[in-house]
């Protein structure tokens, strides 16, 4: 009898493990993806989705080093494509799930003193009071790269050294001329979050200004604390957000969640947080 209970226990443990889906995802999904998971799990009571959030670049590196995961959601197309080229993904599984948007966010206290990005756009950063701006680290965060490209597009910074994003380890100021942003100020610096979620926390807690993901700016906490200007898609690096199933992980429950992302129910949540869906055009 004891032996049979032991066997049944091992079967139960195997079944529980087989019915879990391990997801690593870009931090701009920290509000949208849990809502999607909640709806998915209601429809699939035997499946549990485990979520981990971070920067797309760091997850790419960790996956290449053997991170145990089933599905990878990136904030851009480049990192999943590199995994695909390295043979680390399920063939044919690379898929666009959304296009990301970028905002300039300012805390209410400053907006009420005239620093309102809804009226000033990115030129709000020229005000003498703005000496620190929170962004995600462009070395490994696509939203950090989009922030840098936005500033360059509006003439607020100018490149002085050509370098790949991954090599910008000395900070933006080492590769771009920031004289426009520094003019008339005692100083100016970027404050870096390891991912776009941490950049938002820095904007909330210390800098009062950040260049952030629209999906995070639309969260209840950020809308309560500040206001934002939504950048046109054409004004920054395009964030073609893709996801894929990692090599050897195409199990039935993994495939079910992967396919669920393309359903109307999941699309409603993504749209709620400001993502553009595949094929959609922005109202600009």
UniProtKB/TrEMBL annotation:
Name of the protein in question: Molybdate-binding periplasmic protein
Keyword Metal-binding included in the entry's annotation: yes
Entry GO MF terms: metal ion binding; molybdate ion binding
Keyword Coiled coil: no
UniProt xrefs under NCBIfam families: modA (TIGR01256)
GO BP terms, alphabetized: molybdate ion transport
Family to which the UniProt record says this protein belongs: Belongs to the bacterial solute-binding protein ModA family.
Residues noted as binding molybdate in the record, renumbered to the chain: 56
Keywords in alphabetical order: Metal-binding, Molybdenum, Signal
Gene giving rise to this polypeptide: modA
């Amino acid at each position: 009898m004891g032996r049979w209970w032991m066997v049944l226990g091992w079967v139960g443990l195997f079944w529980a493990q087989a019915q879990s889906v391990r997801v690593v995802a870009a931090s701009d999904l920290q509000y949208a993806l849990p809502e999607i998971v909640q709806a998915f799990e209601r429809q699939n009571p035997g499946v549990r989705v485990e979520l981990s959030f971070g920067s797309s670049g760091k997850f790419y590196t960790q996956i290449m080093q053997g991170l145990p995961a089933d599905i990878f959601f990136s904030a851009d197309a480049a990192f999943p494509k590199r995994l695909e080229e390295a043979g680390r993904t399920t063939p044919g599984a690379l898929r666009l799930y959304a296009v990301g948007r970028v905002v300039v966010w300012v805390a209410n206290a400053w907006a009420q003193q005239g620093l309102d990005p809804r009226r000033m756009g990115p030129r709000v950063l020229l005000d003498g009071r703005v000496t620190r701006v929170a962004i995600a680290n462009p070395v490994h965060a696509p939203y950090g790269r989009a922030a840098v490209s936005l500033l360059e597009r509006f003439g607020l910074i100018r490149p002085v050294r050509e370098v790949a994003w991954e090599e910008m380890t000395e900070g933006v100021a080492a590769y771009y001329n920031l004289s426009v942003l520094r003019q008339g100020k005692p100083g100016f610096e970027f404050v870096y979050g390891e991912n776009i979620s941490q950049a938002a926390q820095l904007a909330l807690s210390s800098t009062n200004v950040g260049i952030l993901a629209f999906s995070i700016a639309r969260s209840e906490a950020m809308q309560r604390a500040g206001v934002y200007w939504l950048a046109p898609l054409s004004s920054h690096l395009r964030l073609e957000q893709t996801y894929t199933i990692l090599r050897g992980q195409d199990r039935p429950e993994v495939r079910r969640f992967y396919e669920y992302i393309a359903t109307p129910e999941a699309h409603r949540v993504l749209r709620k947080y400001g993502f553009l869906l595949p094929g959609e055009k922005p109202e600009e």
